[in-house]
Amino acid sequence: MARRRIGGMSHRIVIVGGGTGGTLTANRLHRVYGDEAEIVVVDRDDRHVYQPGLLFVPFGLEQPEGIVRSRREQLHSGIEFRLAEVDRVETATSAVHLRDGSTLPYDALVIASGASLLYEETEGLRGPGWGEKVFSFYSVEDAVALRDALRSFERGRLVVNLVDMPIKCPVAPLEFCFLADWFLRERGVRSEVEITYATPLDAAFTKPVAASHLGGMFDQKEIALETEFATGRVDGEAGRLLSWDEREIPFDLLVTIPLHGGAPFVADSPGLGDELGFVPVDIHTLQSKAAANVFAIGDAASLPTSKAGSSTHFEGETLTANIQRFLAGEELEGSYDGHVNCFIESGFHKALLIDFNYEVEPLPGRYPEPHVGPLPLLRESRLNHLGKLAFQPLYWHMLLPGRDIPGVGAQMSTSGKHLTPSGRGDNE
């Protein structure tokens, strides 16, 4: 592909989305190219939310104003931030069309537009009862409303419902259940509240070894697990959650994890997205299957791994290197292995940590270094909880600026991980 000179610069790189993936990609590329490339980040608002913090807001463990910053201010000087709505992408002409009628041509395009919440896809979900008995925590406003409801909730059935996969951070619904158990015990009303987790999966989690550990924690915390529940309709007025096969779960307070999809403009861009609006890419190079000069990162990409902030961080290394290779006319490298790690808050100032990739499921062991750790895998510890809390400053000051986090590699290491015949690690 012949490179064009735009505005006196060698390359124009357009990034759609100023969240985690878009910001760290823009900053990494700017560190590489400096003034030799024009980098434009487009987003519809200037409100960057630290999404892991949304889980803590309903329990008063985080203040909403502490997790929101300006998108523009997270970008290095020299990167253009365009406040605009994207209408569509035309891969045939290498152009992003904005709702205001303007067009952004590109040499390389990164789709980093995240995931959208498709509440309307579930009948009755945002109908009568929304904001009274039915809540979510996937926006600052919804997390605050749920916080206010939980403060006065003293008896009845609390149901946490995962409508369908994929979702952002698949462990978040489990964490909500664990934190709710802790929150209600601290208030002295846990014996008056039933907690039920309803999921379309056949276990608490998608990975067998982790699911076994987490399912055991549900039993210990007296949280009911309703598996293979395919949500069909919500009756907020009567407090009923109904499945497609006519199963019914009554509730006094419902916390929904709605169906997720890609950004609307992806569906309006011929050939760019799949049926849910996510962007199919090569799972190792992150190059779009729609066009050679289009890439996707983070929640926007259709990948067989968790949509989590850590995966976006690890993808960033592969993505920025492959954009450089593409613009230089070189062959791409398939270096992303699906690496993800997640802290799972379990309440009482403890958390678990899981680390896995496309081929290796979460296993017991130590992280990030074998034997010395210091963080235990698949086991509750206060250190893991502190690790989750420490990630927030790392997010703002290292991950988003495009820096590597010491000791945390993009490729997953199997060193230090082990599985005994009992399914439990030697460190337990």
Verbal overview:
The protein has 428 residues and is an alpha/beta fold. It folds into 3 domains: 11-115 and 262-327, 3-Layer(bba) Sandwich (FAD/NAD(P)-binding domain); 119-260, FAD/NAD(P)-binding domain (3-Layer(bba) Sandwich), CATH 3.50.50; 340-428, no CATH class. 22% of the residues lie in helices and 25% in strands. It has 7 helices and 26 strands. The protein has helices at 20-33, 140-151, 172-186, 208-220, 264-267, 309-327, 382-399, and strands spanning 11-16, 37-43, 48-49, 68-69, 80-83, 86-90, 95-98, 103-105, 108-111, 116-117, 134-135, 156-162, 193-198, 223-226, 231-235, 240-243, 248-250, 253-257, 260-261, 279-280, 294-296, 301-302, 340-347, 350-356, 365-369, 373-377. The strands form 9 sheets. The protein has a 5-stranded parallel sheet, covered by helices on one side. α1 (20-33) packs parallel to α6 (309-327).
The CATH H-level homologous superfamily of the largest domain = FAD/NAD(P)-binding domain
How helical, in percent, are the residues?
10-25%
Query: How many H/I helical runs?
Result: 7
Number of domains: 3
CATH class of the largest domain: Alpha Beta
Rg, Å, rounded: 22 Å
